Every structure is written in C-alpha cells, then in structure tokens.
Amino acid sequence: MVRTTARKIGNWLRRRRRPLLWAGTVLMVLLASGAYALRDPAPVGYFTSAAAHDRFLATYREAMAELPAPDRTLDIRTGYGVVRVYHFDGTGEPDAAPLLLLPGRASASPVWADNLPSLLRLRDVYTVDLLGEPGLSVQQRPITGDADHARWLHEVLLALPEPRFHLFGLSFGGWTAMNLALHQPAKVAGVIVLDPVLTFADLSAAVILRSIPVSVRWAPRSWRDDFASWTANDAPVEDVPVADMIEQGLQAYVMKLSAPTRPDRDRLGRLEPPALVLLAGKSRMHDAAAAAAYAGDVLPAATVKTYPDASHAINGEYPDQIATDVGAFLDGKG
C-alpha cells in the first residue's frame, strides 16, 4: 500500500514537474526578485533606500537626455498609484489617435530614444513608465493579476484627453498592450507589439536558465551585463545610458507584481482592435517562427511581420523600418 501510494505521488510529481518549474522560473524572470522578495512582506514595489533612489534618478535623467524634450510631463493618479507619462508633440496628423508607448521590463520611457525621432513624424506620442517598475511611477496598491495590470493602464487612458490611442509595446510592454486590449479595449484604436514576450510563444528554456542567476539584486553587474548582451545577441551594453539605468533599477528597486499570464487562444481570438505584430527573427526570448505562425493563425486579421536578422533589441536595431511599418499600419487604421 505504501509503495503504491509512493508510486502514485512520484508519477504525479513527474507529470507536474514542467508546469511547476515553469511557474517558478517565470516568476523569477519577470519579477527579478529571488529569495529576498519571497520573505519581503511589502505589498508594493519600492526603492531600497534614499541613496539607491538617488543613484537610479541620476541614470534615469542621463538616459532621458537621449530623448527629444517632452512638451508635457504628467503624473496621473490611478487606483493603483501615480503613473508618470510624457507627451511628445509630433509633426504628423495633428488630430489622429496618438501612439502610447509601453517599455519593456525595468526599462521605463528612456528605452524609446532611438524610436521617437521617426515615430514623431507619424503622430503625437505618449510614453509611460510602467507602474510597479523602476521609473518615476509610484505604486500604491498591489497589482495581483492580469486584470489589475489592465485596470491601472485603462485609468491612465481615461485621464488623457484623446478619445482613442494606438498602443505600442516592446517586450513585456507588448504583453501589457495586448493585455489591456483584451481586458479594457474601450479607448484602444489599435495594438502594435514589438517582439512581445509571453503573448504568442512561451519563453525559451535558454532565457529561463540564464536569467535565474541574475534575478537577485546582489548578483554582480557583470552577470547582468552578460545577460543583457546575450538577449541582444551579444551586442555590447557597456556605457549605454539606458543599460546603466536598467542596471541601477534592478539594484535599487524591489518589484512586487504578479507574473503575467500568457493569454489563451480563445481570448486572443476575441481581440477587438486591429493589431500589428513585429517579431525579431533571431530573438533568444522565444521561438520567433512559432510565434509568428501562431499570431497569424489566431489573429487572422492582424498584420504579422518578422525581421529575419533582428534580436530582441529590435527597437534600437531597426527604428526607421519599424516606423515605416507602423506608419503603413496607421494609414489604414486611423
């Protein structure tokens, strides 16, 4: 009897090992928390000290200096905290729905430095520092699920004067854009996603394994630089202002966010706004070919395009081509 019970337990564990491992490692990858966060009772994200916050702000300001000057800086209060938003006045159609840019994990508004000049020729642009991430947004209430991730961003859109927006998200920002369009599409005119993670494909085993050693704040910077370089297909990251900002953010800020859930096929198939999906053919984050095939299948009305030689750092590698594809998409969507 004992032996039979043990065998049943062993079989159950073998069947469950992959999903259990997946849930645990995704949490580590996406929250960059490690063991310290597991015993940290704080319900919202925070900077670890005033000095750490000052160091982060110095790198944030240096990275922001790479962008055109915003004509408006907004701090929008939501039910989950205060969200930092920048508005950039474009030279394109003045009354058209603006672009609202959502950065990748821990990268904040400065990640768009290479893209803003060409995007501003198309439309006005807003950039957002994601709530609960290193940046100038201030989380004040727990974000415990995908609906919460959508609700705070929806409240930001409600506070802005334009009736509709084209969401444009990079990496985790792509997931954030799609998540909003699936949960709260009222003010979403279109969705543009740039090599989004956990949207059309799972994270690769390589990125999960490589991210585990650098997911704790006390890991040496060289490890994180190596990981960042690896995700950009071995491009150098030293002395890059936005990379310095991300490094300081990972050192200085403790994120307390629920891990994002990959949307299921039925939910994606009910997407209402039109979509443009741009994938990096050599992305190490996921299987780009599988992601493109899945996106084309589940979103038959979407435009799906792969940049064959792009890495996950696609936004900095192909800013003009991205703007051309975005412009073509906007011309047909208003």
Automatic annotation (TrEMBL):
Domain of life: Bacteria
Domain AB hydrolase-1: 99-323
UniProt xrefs under InterPro entries: AB_hydrolase_1, AB_hydrolase_fold, AB_hydrolase_sf
GO terms for cellular component: membrane
GO molecular function: catalytic activity
PANTHER family xrefs: HYDROLASE, PUTATIVE (AFU_ORTHOLOGUE AFUA_2G14860)-RELATED, MONOACYLGLYCEROL LIPASE
Protein name from the UniProt record: Pimeloyl-ACP methyl ester carboxylesterase
